[in-house]
Amino acid sequence: MSRSLATPKASSDLLSVSFNQDGSCVSIGTRKGYSIANAEPFGKVYSRDDGPCSIVEMLFCTSLVALVGTADSQPSSSPRKLKIVNTKRQSTICELVFPTTVLGVKLNRRRLVVILEEEIYIYDISNMKLLHTIETSPNPHAICALSPSSDPCYLAYPSPVPSPNSPFSQGASQHSPGDVLIFDLVTLSVTNIIQAHKTPISSLALNSTGTMLATASDKGTVIRVFSVPGAQKLFQFRRGSYPARIYNISFNAVSSLLCVSSDTETVHVFKLAQGTKGAGASSNKGLVPPTSPSLDGSSDTGSPTGNGRGAGGYEAFIDDKKKSGGLSGSIRKRSLALGRNMAGSVGGYLPKPMAEMWEPSRDFAFLKLPTPGVSSVVAVSSTTPQVMVVTSEGYFYSYNIDLENGGECTMMKRNFAATSQSTLFSRATIPPMRRGHRRWEIKSLLSLIFVFT
């Protein structure tokens, strides 16, 4: 649930933030150390000043935490060193040292995954044995998703794309930079390739059961959901007309909602078909009528699209206000309305796959962050109908969502914790790295895991 969040508006003291696997806790890295906070209600549980932490990742609500340092710190806290610590006993369980910077860390109860720029290392978390190494294309943003579940246990990452000078480039010409590989972490083999987008992947997320994968490209206009490992397209959603950088994608616990944050101030909430398990759902079943504040536009594959109805919401209202008052504005509005009506009429006569390109589903609900242009990570509460957002400015927001009617979410809480003692939240952009790994040292077993109380 973590994502690089460096922006001009990020707090200078903040280095990292991420929700844990079920969204119940937030792990925070600062220039002085790290801390753990409960998400509901928001409050600090644990903190320690051990030097800068560029990555802080939890294993659910246990005391097992993965830490990575920074380049401007003492040698004992290097960006090349991954430490597994037990916060209950305040002890270091294990250290893994790499020749270059660690860009990302993912954990579940079965596997530990370490993402480098051109390699992914897979460990058995019970004994820290290195099981497998995957070579990848350059991945400076550590785009990767690990299923929270241990069975099935899947890893999703962008498909390697050979360079034009590579001797394998001709044989791999059918692969697109928007393809995603599904890797089984039990059998240690690729189980499927999902043709998700035509442009490079910018964000991936697996649901809690490891049966659904959400994807976004670097264009950021369309969000797609696929079954895992079957690679069937289940849903296609329209985030907006204009390109945007997707910061974070997150399913709720029962995979009925999907949250997407980007470099705009709007966080979108899409509704998935009720009862969908991920494997056998129809691609159009349960898609919700559009309620997005975004305008219609083209898909990230260049296909013609349309809504089938007028766009609604705050942004559309403001846009209409700006365009009213003049002949050109009147003509523009009539042209837009005519285009939407034509798209809806034509879409009704098309087969489902083609109609889907014309009528991508809009969001079910949305929320507006107070400050535009800040990066964020999102999660949906597993106990209350609320969306939780943490921004690079240092704010933790909680928004109430109407599960029946959708629409604009209502802000319920706002907490500020951007201090040296308890800090929120900017996942640092980490320097690029290459390959390799050498020594690792076990100081104690990973069975020493204690739940926070």
TrEMBL record:
Residues 277-315 are annotated as: Disordered. Keywords: Autophagy, Endosome, Membrane, Protein transport, Repeat, Transport, Vacuole, WD repeat. It is found in: Endosome membrane; Preautophagosomal structure membrane; Vacuole membrane. GO terms for cellular component: endosome membrane; phagophore assembly site membrane; vacuolar membrane. Its main location: membrane. GO terms for biological process: autophagy; protein transport. Signal peptide: none annotated. InterPro entries: PROPPIN, WD40/YVTN_repeat-like_dom_sf, WD40_repeat_dom_sf, WD40_rpt. It comes from the Eukaryota. It is a peripheral membrane protein. Residues 293-304 have a biased composition (Polar residues). Belongs to the WD repeat PROPPIN family. This is Autophagy-related protein 18. It comes from Acaromyces ingoldii. The lineage of its organism: Eukaryota, Fungi, Dikarya, Basidiomycota, Ustilaginomycotina.
